[in-house]
Specification:
It is found in: Cell outer membrane. There is one protein chain. This protein is mainly α. It contains 19 helices and nine strands. Strand 6 (about 385-390) and strand 7 (about 395-400) form a beta hairpin. It is globular and about 75 Å long.
Length: about 550
């Protein structure tokens, strides 16, 4: 964790709310942080950036103090390779199984997503506008770096908004008590993307090749997002150019050899980068483009909940009415099993692919509960129950994927394998803490490779695309492909193999025009319920109602 996370607790209170400028009778309490007394020097702007990064990290830590209602929830489940384990009408994220009447304009989780992203935009706008203050003493380069990071994050927020809602209001200036509007219009996606492009181009021009510290964005982050943006805009030549710029940057490379912690223990180069103390560039990870910084039990140190989403409730696995496995550091800590992989997600791995190995997925657990050793026969794993190899400590409890996915119920899905990318356990005796406090990979070079391959394929260069994809497959010891194997479905399958639970899968499928068909085909829970209207979320009714002087159009299919 870096020092900039420690200031975010207080600064974010400034950035995430609408600010009022000084009036005639306003006092100036010197001990209170506000934009007027914060953005007066370089240190103040740096503090503002720290708060802005904390807003970004909320994608994985929860909005408004909740453990759900997250941007990432909307982006990673209800797709071809992942679904919610909560039953119909359960936790908020289960709406991405249910859709239907639960996906409606009055739902609190829809409003929370919208408000979170516009709070982030306003925080960025405040920094951008106040950077023009001529009284601030800083160099032009210092000013431009602050502007570049703020603008990069502003475009990051609009990326989420446009994929989730389509046309959305575009605002590039600070909102305060003197600028309340009731006549917002939904800006066409093309115009919003044009603004995003300018923000990321500015960031590309003014950020260094490598981040100034772990957790900060750099030039390659802007270039990566530009490559994705140009693919969405149909500008495939530009997409190839930006992706190639990242792939060719000598400061970054795919991890192809074991490194860091546990390098002398069983594992793979692919899985090393997800281990605690292996995620950051300063820790030897040259594949990572952007990390999220967290800190265990530290004021201002953020948390995230990737483990409680993805690690199943292995402590409830039963063998002959015994529970032979309990929480441990070795098992990755406490999971709550909110999300699960679909059967399709497991089906795409070929023989020998490290990305589908037991180093990447929990296919078995070792018996570690001396008070509940299993007894009786030793069955093989089935759909109804796990198998086991013996009744002593250290023997193996095996899970099975040779059956249908478990029905959504977080209390009965413990026999289904789960990804190990987000395993992490606090030190004893706090191993039952369900939050993650380790630094985590957020964006990495492998995804840029896949953007490059997509651009090459769309530019009628399947041979180049195959070469690009084989860089990933060779690293994972998967069988190489040739040009004849490359098509959009293969690229999407490869993205799932490489980026399961990392990428914003919904956005990828929407960008490629495949979300509806692939979710119908591969997600037996969501696929039976979605309609074409569900390609976009409903505009929150509270937003429509607050736009008093100009009607705001609702997305198709959500009119009440």
């Amino acid at each position: 964790m870096n020092k900039f996370t420690k200031l975010s607790l207080s600064i974010i209170l400034v950035l995430s709310s609408v600010q009022c400028r000084k009036g005639f009778l306003d006092e100036e309490p010197k001990a209170i942080i506000a934009p007027d007394n914060l953005y007066v020097n370089k240190a103040g702007f740096d503090a503002g950036l720290y708060g802005l990064y904390s807003q970004v990290r909320s994608e994985r830590k929860g909005i408004n103090g909740a453990s759900n209602d997250l941007t990432s929830t909307a982006a990673i489940i209800g797709v071809d390779n992942a679904y919610s384990l909560y039953p119909a009408g359960g936790a908020a994220e289960s709406v991405f199984n249910d859709f239907g009447v639960r996906m409606n304009p009055t739902a609190g989780y829809i409003r929370n997503l919208w408000e979170y992203l516009y709070q982030t935009i306003n925080a960025a706008n405040t920094i951008v506008d106040r950077a023009d203050n001529p009284d601030v003493e800083w160099t032009e380069d210092e000013k431009n770096q602050v502007l570049a990071e703020a603008r990069l994050i502003r475009a990051w927020a609009y990326r989420h908004l446009t994929y989730l809602w389509g046309n959305v209001p575009l605002n590039l200036h600070e909102s305060d008590g003197n600028s309340i509007r009731t006549d917002w219009e939904r800006t066409p996606v093309a115009e919003v993307r044009a603004a995003m492009e300018q923000d990321w181009l500015f960031a590309e021009a003014h950020l260094p090749d490598v981040p100034v510290m772990d957790g900060r964005a750099s030039k390659v982050v802007a270039q990566h997002y530009l490559a994705e943006l140009y693919l969405a805009m149909g500008e495939n030549e530009k997409a190839r150019e930006k992706a190639q710029a990242v792939v060719s940057n000598g400061n970054y490379n795919l991890i192809t050899a074991r490194y860091g912690v546990n390098a002398n223990q069983p594992g793979t180069p692919f899985t090393d980068m997800f281990l605690d103390k292996n995620s950051n560039r300063s820790e030897g990870n040259r594949e990572v483009l952007w990390t999220f910084q967290n800190e265990y039990l530290t004021v201002g140190g953020d948390v995230n909940i990737m483990r409680r989403w993805w690690v199943n409730r292995y402590n409830t696995i039963k063998v002959n009415n015994k529970t032979p496995i309990t929480f441990s550091v070795e098992n990755g800590g406490r999971g709550i099993g909110r999300f699960a992989a679909t059967k399709y997600a497991f089906s795409v791995y070929g023989p020998g692919d490290d990305r589908g190995s037991y180093h990447a997925w929990r296919y078995f657990y070792l018996i570690n509960n001396p008070s509940s050793l299993p007894t009786g026969s030793k069955p093989t794993a089935t759909c109804a129950a796990p198998g086991w190899t013996g009744s002593a400590l250290g023997d193996t409890i095996k899970l099975s994927i040779d059956c249908e996915e478990p029905n959504p119920s977080a209390t009965t899905a413990q026999n289904w394998p789960s990804t190990r990318k987000w395993d992490w356990a606090p030190p004893p005796p706090d191993v039952e803490n369900s939050s993650n406090y380790n630094d985590q990979v957020y964006l990495r070079l492998a995804e840029t490779y896949l953007l490059l391959a997509e651009a090459q394929f769309k530019l009628n260069d399947p041979s180049g695309a195959a070469t690009t994809i084989n860089a990933l497959r060779n690293r994972a010891h998967a069988t190489p492909i040739d040009a004849a194997d490359v098509n959009m479905n293969f690229i999407l399958d490869e993205r799932s193999r490489e980026l399961f639970s990392e990428e914003h899968r919904r956005y990828t499928l929407l960008r490629t025009g495949t979300w509806f068909a692939r979710t119908k085909q591969y997600n037996r829970f969501t696929g039976a319920k979605i309609a074409l209207r569900d390609t976009l979320l409903p505009i929150p009714q509270s937003v429509i109602d607050a736009n008093l002087t100009k009607p705001m159009e609702q997305n198709l299919g959500y009119d009440q």
